[in-house]
Design brief:
By secondary structure, this protein is an alpha/beta fold. Helices cover 39% and strands 13% of the residues. It folds into four domains: 110 residues, no CATH class; 319 residues, 3-Layer(aba) Sandwich (Rossmann fold); 245 residues, Rossmann fold; 129 residues, Multifunctional 2-oxoglutarate metabolism enzyme, C-terminal domain (Rossmann fold, 3-Layer(aba) Sandwich). Strand 5 and strand 6 form a beta hairpin. The N terminus is likely disordered.
Amino acid sequence: MLESVMKAWWDSSHMAGGNAAYVEEVYEAYLDDPQSVSDEWRTIFDRLPKVEGVELEAKHSDIRQQFREQAKLGPMGRVSAAGATGAATDDRQVKVLQLINAYRFRGHQNANLDPLGLWKQDRVRDLELAHHELSESDFDTVFNVGSYKVGKDSMPLGELFKSLNQTYCGSVGAEYMHITDTEQKRWIQQRFESVQAKPEFDRDAKINILKGLIAADGMEKYLGSKFPGAKRFSLEGGDALIPMLKNLISHAGEKGAKEVVVGMAHRGRLNVLVNVLGKNPSVLFDEFSGKHDESLGSGDVKYHMGYSSDYATPGGNVHLALAFNPSHLEIVNPVVMGSVRARMDRRGCEDGSTVLPITIHGDSAIAGQGVVQETFNMSQTRAFQTGGTVRIVINNQVGFTTSKLDDTRSTPYCTDIAKMVQAPIFHVNADDPEAVVFVTKLALDYRNTFKRDVVIDLVCYRRHGHNEADEPSATQPLMYKKVKKHPVPRQIYADQLTAEGTIDKHEVEKLVSDYRSALDHGACVVDEWRPMTEHSVDWSPYLGHDWNTPYKGEIGLDKLKELGDRICTIPEGFELNSRVAKLYKDRRAMIDGERKLDWGMAETLAYATIVDDGSRIRMTGQDSGRGTFFHRHAVLHNQADAETYMPLQNIREGQGPMEIYDSVLSEEAVVAFEYGYSTAEPDCLTIWEAQFGDFTNGAQVVIDQFLSSGEQKWGRLCGLTMLLPHGYEGQGPEHSSARLERFLQMSADHNWQVCVPSTPAQVFNMLRRQMLRPMRRPLIVMSPKSLLRHAQATSSLEELAEGQFHNVIAEIDDLDPKKVKRVVMCSGKVYYDLLDQRRKNEQDDVAIIRIEQLYPFPHDEIAEVLEPYKHVTDFVWCQEEPQNQGAWYCSQHHFYAAIPDGAKLTYTGRPASASPAVGYVSVHNIQQKALVEDALATK
């Protein structure tokens, strides 16, 4: 027992000499309370030799000496190589172990990472022999190397010192000692130290690396000469990205991956499209010449476009997808993660072993864009985990034109943000392509083993300006003096291979010439490219449909009652919260016909019908399980043991999957994730629910650049549903408006639907329509707050069973149309305020029409509803929002088109305001009363 414990202790990096202070702190805690430390530490301390006459407490000097004695004996109680040389050597043995640990912690700070040699590295005393009271005079002394994974227990200090510098201060700088999991650190040490960070490559592997560099360089030079001055965001200087990606994909396929999804911004994108994904160069050249695919709506610039293909690997073909993305840098990363999660779910893969996400970042962007932190934070959560992402940074040491470190970030490395999730970070010199390939495979194996994110910092340079029209010397004069004299990576590696006899110069010249000829022919230049067969989803059923495509939405009453019974069935012994128990008792009464259905029941029934049909539902949001306003309670919590139960997951055997997650406290990354999910999975009702509708402010970039325009720019369909609580209840500026006006302003080209349902039956049929209609476009819902429990906002089972969402709802009271002098049009909660006041007034001369879908505007339906009021000349649009917000400014052209010729249209609502709503309930009530009275006041 003691032997195994001491071996574990010795192998643990926490016990290395550099952690002596930490060991003392743990021991002090043990002295105070033995139960306060872990079982492993308690066992070690319990078995330490006792100081005579002392049962528990001991002098720290005595304890330190006992640790030194253990170091002398070695992990199994045997005399170490240094053990026979006396007390002085014993002290040096401890110092040697401290030296090893120092290199593991700080070796990266002295690594040879910058191809240009411009980095001014601070002196790291921990890596100097003298700091550990060692010197070159000790080089011939043999010491035990502890857990240093070089295949031998002991080494002369000189050999060890050389090995440490080669391993930790060569072309790779490894940061991993911040990881608290000992198994992960040992795994990295084994893989890293066993080959001293420099494995051997056979001739074929080296030639393939060279081919990748030739392709990267050749592509850029070809574009530069053929289209001088055109923006291409050249990869030059970071050429190693091409062999890196090719090896990464090949290795992933060998390890069982079936799909790889890549997200990247501009730098090197065209090169990746042609040299990795296999896009025909001739197609790219046509894009540079101004030709375009006229079927693609507005289109987009060439360095935003995505692409898909299959790629041959030793493990079979892998499907590659490069995500479309806008200029907003890092925002594509959560989109990629969402797409990967959808593919995992479709394949029934829970650990990410069959689908790999790769995100490629800029050095300034990864440090500067907050969405990066959000995606790191999501990476291990239930709702958003993908089994780890391989994150690559093209670190050209320049942020646009800002190269001063203290201007672009506040951390030593641009990758320090990754430490928040304890991701290992491998910095690598891009001019050493073999080191690049080594860390690439190491990174993927780490990700596959531990299902966590890993970062590769590809330290390179930018041969041109931010784009090819810039003059970089204006802001980085010293750097670009170096760049102009620096040989390209292809030349450096080719010279290395010719010097070592792997290839001769004529063979190199032929490889360069062959690649140039391939570009001239315009055909695919990627040997591994294959026609697509691996993609596992078919979008063709959703193409070519318009809003009026018929679908079968009706559902039988018996079926509704059956499903209602199942979603109201709670396991025996499951103790509900008293308020939740009452809610479920009321739902049971609704199914039995004793009460009308409220919003929560109708919504839940809609979900039940969808999963009963076999489709998937995925809902995320910060309070989605219960609903922000305590109305949904789709996820039940046992008050006795906190276990959860979801009735919607227990509809029937073989039903569609039902997932509801309370998400991380993020809007931008979460909405981007759900967008990515919905673009990869059409047979899923994908829903994001805002805690309050105005929280979409935090996700505006996703709405602007993906959701509203993705189909127009890239031809990407997406069925994401957004539930945005909206309504003026006197809750102040930040909890009233979902900014309806923004969505309406962006409404064009039939890009999405904007709906404001006002009854439970409407939300039931709206959600079903979104799934049943063979069309996948976003659905933006201004969902209610107070209407969730409004006495009049109820529906019958028969209204649900009807199966139709009404874009416009006519007057419901039995008014004589001939007596009507004014028609009020409105949407949402204000309808019930108007209805209540009109009934109190006993008015019969004002008709109230609800427009439930504001975009696409239902011209035909509203014409039919307004037909009885052709004689009316007084029409009003009434809204709760200020005049410059809501639907008035963006939709009034539709309202004017709807009313009879010669009729007058006026506005009633709050006056224009810079703030969405007032902050005082008393003022809110005065405004609300005034706008209702104004709307109903006939002349």
